[in-house]
Write a structure and sequence with these properties.
This protein is of the alpha+beta class and about 400 residues long. The chain has 2 domains: about 180 residues, no CATH class; about 180 residues, no CATH class. About 55% of the residues lie in helices and about 15% in strands. The protein contains 14 helices and 14 strands. Strand 8 and strand 9 form a beta hairpin. Helix 2 runs antiparallel to helix 10. It is elongated, with a radius of gyration of 33 Å. The mean pLDDT is about 85.
């Protein structure tokens, strides 16, 4: 009964100072919101990004002029590299032989595709490649045929189109044999790609494949750097294939033994690893910001409780004079501090999960609840309440009752 009375007194004191209690909880909530929101977004996007980064075929990696993801080095460092020309890409493919499956490609985004009186939005990806590019990009043919060796050799104006382009331009009409126009150039549709859906909010079906030689004839060769896709026979051979690819590419580029590589190699796994490093850095930043905010909030809790002790000095003296023990007063003030911290923590968890999931949904991620981090946030909130509330509680409990009764 005594303990229940202590709890009632603690809650009534908090209710009597709603604004002060609310501001104290807000500080805790902001600190918790920072880390919970970040972890919720990362958790919601993790699966989507991991699957979205797996756009290459199985056991595949790519050789490019620029790195896939770059935050540390200035882009100009890579811009000074010479382009990977189509001749170099063909030479690499010849040297690789049949041991490695190699495809060559170059992409240009933001194209508008026209068929008669219909046209797409100017957001279609134009992918130019050789006869192996469709398999290299992990696509399949639904109807029609693939790009052939002769299409590439003679630079034929033929095209494979994705499902989004089909729906926009042809509807229920069979697109095979029809003519489409891109940047003033006519192409005959020879195949339709199987639908792949969207990834990271971007459609994988809003694209057109054409022979790379036709692309170079239409748009020119200046400033065109090729991407080389290489596929090993099995997952166990990927590492060896990458080592061999580096050696072949250095030969093709005419590099001396002491020269650094002037090209980049990345795979699905390396892209996922980069994402994990980025998300880890974001999580670490959120933890640092949250720790600073929670430390400041803890100091705020202590200051508020010290103000409360000062305002209630006479009340404490009366309670002591009629028999209240030090432990009872200490417990009451600790309960007030912990309650403020826990309520602020719960508010931060709720808002963080809601806000994080809204961002994840906007970015085409999944709904998640970060149970581990929510539990950690709740526990830390309790520790803050106890740690920063202990001194004001001890100060209240050790007040001299006579001096407290004299306090005005």
């Amino acid at each position: 009964m005594i303990f229940l009375e202590i709890i009632r007194l603690a809650f009534s004191s908090l209710a009597a100072n709603k604004l002060r209690s609310g501001l104290t909880m807000l500080g805790i909530a902001v600190g918790v919101f920072t880390v919970i929101g970040a972890m919720t977004v990362i958790g919601g996007l993790s699966g989507a990004i991991t699957s979205g980064l797996n756009f290459l075929g199985a056991n595949s990696f790519q050789i490019t002029k620029y790195p896939a993801i770059n935050f540390s080095d200035p882009r100009q460092r890579f811009a000074n590299r010479s382009d990977i020309t189509y001749g170099e890409a063909r030479r690499f493919k010849e040297l690789a032989g049949e041991e490695l499956q190699v495809s060559v490609q170059i992409m240009r985004g933001g194209r508008r595709v026209v068929h008669r009186d219909r046209e797409t939005n100017p957001n279609v990806a134009l992918v130019a490649g050789d006869e192996a590019v469709v398999a290299g990009r992990n696509h399949e043919i639904a109807t029609g045929r693939n790009l052939g060796i002769e299409d590439v050799e003679f630079g034929r104006a033929v095209a494979l189109i994705g499902r989004d382009v089909v729906d926009r331009l042809f509807g229920d009409v069979d697109p095979l044999g029809q003519t489409i126009r891109i940047d003033g150039q006519n192409y005959v549709v020879v195949g339709v790609l199987a639908a792949k859906g969207s990834s990271l909010g971007q459609s994988q079906d809003n694209l057109v494949f054409i022979p790379v030689t036709q692309f170079l004839e239409t748009y020119g060769r200046a400033g065109r750097s090729m991407t080389i896709n290489v596929q090993a026979a099995s997952p166990d051979l990927v590492a060896a294939a990458q080592e061999r690819a580096v050696g072949l590419m250095r030969i093709v580029r005419g590099l001396d033994p002491e020269d650094p590589n002037d090209f980049e190699i990345f795979s699905n796994e390396s892209l996922v690893e980069m994402f994990n490093q980025i998300s880890g850095a974001v999580a670490a930043g959120a933890l640092i910001i949250s720790a600073i905010a929670l430390l400041a909030s803890g100091v705020g809790v202590m200051n508020i409780m010290l103000v409360s002790v000062t305002e209630r000095t006479r009340e404490i003296g009366i309670r002591k004079s009629i028999g209240a023990r030090k432990a009872s007063i200490l417990t009451q003030f600790l309960i007030e501090a912990v309650t403020l911290s826990l309520l602020g923590g719960l508010a931060g968890i709720g808002v963080g999960v809601l806000g994080g999931n809204l961002v994840a949904i906007w970015l085409k991620g999944a709904l998640v609840f970060p149970w581990f981090w929510a539990g950690m946030a709740f526990a830390v909130s309790a520790v803050i309440g106890i740690g920063f509330g202990l001194y004001p509680a001890w100060r209240a409990a050790t007040l001299d009752p006579i001096e407290a009764l004299r306090y005005e």
